[in-house]
């Protein structure tokens, strides 16, 4: 958990913390699933799609589908076996920050570095 998330959590009431945990349960990305996808289908970049990182997923898929790109995709897949755990934690922090900011400020987080992940709702429920 990053510092921003911890500071925002301190501003929430106990009921809001329970609601946050319920939302995170629905949207959290599981590291084991991400690793298994990277291990078995990593050459196609499927784990990137699971984590909501479309650009690297598409690049990896296109590289794999071109025979010359296999030279890039195979080492990239192996590196991802070791980095997918951290990537998953980063995505979960981003999702949690999005919900926390929305609960504390009543509006979606401004100017995200990328669009909302995995079909997150645009308004608080």
Descriptive report:
- This protein has about 120 residues and is mainly alpha-helical.
- It has one domain (about 15-105).
- The protein has 6 helices and no strands.
- It has helices spanning about 5-10, 15-25, 30-40, 45-50, 55-65, 70-105.
- Helix 1 (about 5-10) packs parallel to helix 6 (about 70-105).
- The longest helix has about 35 residues, at about 70-105.
| Total individual domains | 1
Give the DSSP E fraction (strand runs of 2 or more residues).
under 5%
Rounded average pLDDT: 85
Rg computed from alpha carbons, rounded to a whole number of angstroms: 17 Å
Question: How does the overall form come out from the CA principal axes?
Answer: elongated
Count of separate DSSP helical elements: 6
Q: By helix and strand content, what is the structural category? A: mainly alpha
Could you name the ranges where pLDDT drops below 50 across 5 or more consecutive residues? 121-125
Q: What is the terminal separation in angstroms?
A: 23 Å
What is the makeup of the main sheet? none
Percentage of residues assigned to helices? 55-70%
Record field, number of beta strands: 0
Secondary-structure element sequence? HHHHHH
Summarize the structure.
The chain has six helices and no strands. The chain is mainly α and 125 residues long.
What does the secondary structure layout of this molecule look like, with pairings?
Elements: H1 3-9, H2 14-27, H3 31-41, H4 46-50, H5 54-65, H6 70-105
Helix pairs in contact: 1-6, 2-6, 3-6, 5-6
Features:
disordered C terminus; 6 helices; 68% helix; elongated
């Amino acid at each position: 958990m990053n510092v921003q998330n911890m500071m925002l959590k301190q501003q929430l009431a106990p009921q809001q913390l329970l609601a946050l945990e319920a939302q995170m349960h629905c949207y959290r990305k599981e590291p084991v699933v991400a690793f298994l996808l990277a291990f078995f289908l990593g050459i196609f970049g499927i784990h990137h799609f699971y984590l909501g990182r479309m650009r690297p997923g598409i690049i990896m898929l296109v590289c794999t589908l071109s025979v010359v790109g296999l030279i890039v995709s195979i080492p990239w897949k192996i590196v991802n076996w070791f980095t997918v755990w951290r990537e998953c934690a980063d995505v979960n922090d981003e999702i949690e920050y999005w919900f926390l900011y929305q609960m504390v400020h009543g509006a979606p987080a401004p100017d995200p570095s990328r669009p909302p992940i995995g079909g997150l709702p645009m308004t608080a429920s």
